[in-house]
Specification:
The chain has 186 residues and is an alpha+beta fold. It has helices at residues 10-34, 41-50, 56-68, 87-96, 102-124, 160-185; strands at residues 39-40, 72-77, 80-85, 125-131, 137-145, 148-157.
Length: 186
Amino acid sequence: MKQEPLQTNPANIDTLNKDVLIFYKLIVLYMLNRAAFPITKAQVADFILEKEYMDFFTLQQVFAELSASEMISTKSIRNRTHLAITEEGRETLYLFQNRISSSTREKIDAFFRENAMEMRNEVSILADYYKSTSGEYEAHLTASERNIRLVDITLSVPDAETASAICDNWQKKNQAIYQHLIEQLF
């Protein structure tokens, strides 16, 4: 008996693709909800790409759609994009969280247990610069812990290169600088 070739129904493929995309969005929402601090696109991508849940381009589509539907908020600071779940994202996650398998949730939870301190440190030290109305450049440096701002410094400098160098050095030397300030001021 001759076997007929499988007929693919485009409507079934579209439904499957939508279901898979919903699953991917729920993974991102679960991660953002799980984090007790803002996390970066790169941090989310590291986990998702390492576990091979989706490819880079699909992940970018997921970020864009979640942002467009206001389920996540994004904030760019220098070369990092920080993500946070919105109230609408939390409500959506609550309604559909049963679509995320317990093994996937366990992997995400384990990722946060193992990497939370490093991830928190990565987003709690911020540095950015901009051109002020006076024509100078201002390097804005902050260090936070548990949503409490420990240091907030703005330095005016003559050019963008110096401001950029200050921001780079803040990322590398913030602990020593903070310690020096404490020693000198107390």
